[in-house]
Amino acid sequence: MAVVFDRPHALVDVSMHYCPGCTHGIVHRLVAEVIDELNIEGTTIGVSPVGCAYNNYLYFNCDMQQAAHGRAPAVATGVKRVHPDKVVFTYQGDGDLAAIGTAEIVHAAARGEKITTVFINNAIYGMTSGQMAPTTLVGQVTTTSPYGRKPEIQGYPIRVCEMLSTLTGAAFVERVSVHDIKNIRNAKKAIKKAFQVQQKGYGFSIVEVLSTCPTNWGINPVDAMKWVQDKMIPYYPLGNFKGADLEV
Amino acid sequence: MGKKVLMKGNEVIAEAAIRAGCTHYFGYPITPQSDIAHYMAKQLPLVGGTFVQAESEVAAINMLYGASGAGARCMTSSSSPGISLKQEGISYMACAELPAVIVNIVRCGPGLGGILPAQGDYFQAVKGGGHGDYKMVVLAPANLQELYELTVEAFNIADKYRTLVMIMGDGNLGQMMEPVQFKDQEDIYKDEKAWATVGTGMKRKHNTITSIYIEPEVLEAHNNKLQKKYALIAEKEVRVEEFNTENADIIVTAYGTVARIVKNVIKLAKKDNINVGLIRPITLWPFPSEAYVKCAEYAKAFLSVELSAGQMVEDVRLAVNGKKPVYFHGRTGGMIPTEKEIYDKIKEILEKLGG
C-alpha cells in the first residue's frame, strides 16, 4: 500500500510539548518537510530560540544549537561563518525576534547573512504567560495590556517583514499564515524558497508565519484560526515583500 | 627560533591567536583594545579566517557561541564596559561548555569610567560576572612575551577542558610595545570536537548545544559535572610566579603590570636590607592559594597592590585565612602607584608590626 502521509525524517519521533491548537507543530512539520525535500538534513544546523519553541532542538533531527533570548541570528552568524557550505536556520518567536533580539535580526539581515529565519508571529508572549508582544495588535488584551493595547501608551505593533525588506542584505522576505490548508501550502512553498535562496547564496531570507496561541488569547483553537484571518491578516498582509523573482 | 619582533600588546594577542589556530574573531570597537580588531580584520582573511564586526558586544559573544559550537577555535575581545555586556553570553557558554578565548583589556570604571589602565574587573572575571555557578580560567600576563605565550596556551586550555578562558590585561599591557620572541611552531592541543554541530552527515544522532535543563535533577547533575571540571582545572592549571619569597619579611602580591612595579620596589628595599617577596598570580582563577599558605608560615604580613579599590585582596585573605595580617594598597581611575608609594606602604606596615 502506498504511504500517503508520514512523519518527515527531519522530525524526531517524540511528542511535542505545545498546547492544543497551537500552530508551532504545523510550522515544525513544514520546516522538516522542506529539509527532507531538499535532502539537507545532514548538512543543516538549526538554532532554537527562547520562547515556546525553546527546546525544538529536541524535535529536529539535524544538528541544533539553543540560543539566548533574541540572539539566534548572532549565533547562526557564528555557525554560518564557520560552515559557509552548510544550511543554517533560526526559528524565533515575536518577543525573541522583534523585541529583545531586534538588533540581532536587523544586523544579520543587513549583513546579508546567508541564513534563513522562520519567524512565528502570534501577537503575544506565549511561554511567559501571555504578555504584550511587539506584534500585539492595537486593542488586544494581554496580561501586560489588561485594558487593551493603547497606542498612546504602548505604541504600535511592528511589521517585521515590511521593515526588513528595506534592507539590501535581505534577499527573500515573505509573510504567510497557517490558519487553513491553502495557506499552509503557501507557507511551505515560502519556507522552501527561503532555504533555497540561502543555498544559492543570495543573502538573508525570512518567512514570517502568522500563528495562533489559543491558550494565551483565551479562545478555542477553531476561533483562534478565525482570529488570524479576521484580526491579524488585515494588519499583517500576507505576501512576498522581496525576492519572489529570485531563481532557485 | 622564530622572529623577534617589537610589537604592541594588543597586536601580540591577535598574532598569538592566529598562531594558535584561531580562525574566527568577533568584536565591537572599544578603547583601549581596538587594535586587536584592526589586526584581525587585516590578517585573518589572509590565512583563510573570518573577522566579523558585530553590531554590539552582545551580538559578538553570541556569534562566538555559534562559532565555538560549530567547532571553530575562536575569540572575542573587548574592554570593561563591553565585557559587562558579554556576561549573558559568557554564562550561557559556560553552561553549554563551549571553548573560546575572551580578552579583556581592562579600563577604569565603574560606568563608562575612563580609558586608562585598571584592574577593577577582577571580581567580575573570577567570581562570575554572569549569572549562575560557573568559572572561567583567567590568565593575567605581566609582559608581552608572556602575553604571547599565554594567549596560545589559552586556546589549548579552552579546548582541553571545554571551557572559557579569559586573558585579562590592563590598558598598559594592551598599549605598550616590547620585543616578543615568536616560536617557529606552536604546540597546539588537538581535539576532534565530536560534540560540535557541524551537520550530522546522516551518519550520527544529531548533536545539540544547549544551556537549558528544565528538569531539576538533570540541571543539578549538569552543575555537578561543571564543578567537577572546575575542580580538575583548579588542580592542574594553577600558574604563579614567586619572586624573592624565601625568607621574605613581607610578601607583596600583585598581578599583571603592577607586579613589574613591585619588582622594582623589591630592589629598592634590598638596599635598605628589607626583605620583600612577590607572589604574582598568573592564573587569577584558579587562584594560587598554596603560595600564600606556604609564605604565611614565615612572612610577617601580606600587602596586595592593585589598580582597584581592593578586589584580589579578598582572595589573598581567604588563602592566608587569618594567619597573618593582610594589607591593601590600591589606586583607581587610571592612576598607577609609584614605586615610592608602595615602598612607603611597606615601611609603614613593618613599623606597625614592630620592624
Keywords for this entry:
heterodimer, A: 248 residues, alpha/beta, Rossmann fold, seven-stranded mixed β-sheet, 9 helices, 36% helix, 17% strand, globular, B: 355 residues, 2 domains, five-stranded mixed β-sheet, 15 strands, 41% helix, 20% strand
How would you portray this structure in words?
The complex is a heterodimer of chains A (248) and B (355). Chain A has one domain: Thiamin diphosphate (ThDP)-binding fold, Pyr/PP domains (Rossmann fold, 3-Layer(aba) Sandwich). Chain A is 36% helix and 17% strand. Chain A has nine helices and seven strands; from the N terminus they run αββαβααβααβαβααβ. In chain A, helix 3 (94-100) packs across helix 4. The longest helix of chain A is centred in the C-terminal third of the chain and has 20 residues, at 181-200. Chain A is globular, with a radius of gyration of 17 Å. By secondary structure, chain B is an alpha/beta fold. In chain B, the strands form three sheets. Chain B has a seven-stranded mixed β-sheet with strand order 3-2-4-5-7-6-13, sandwiched between helices. The mean pLDDT of chain B is 97. The chains are: A alpha/beta (248), B alpha/beta (355). Strand 2 (63-66) of chain A pairs parallel with strand 9 of chain B.
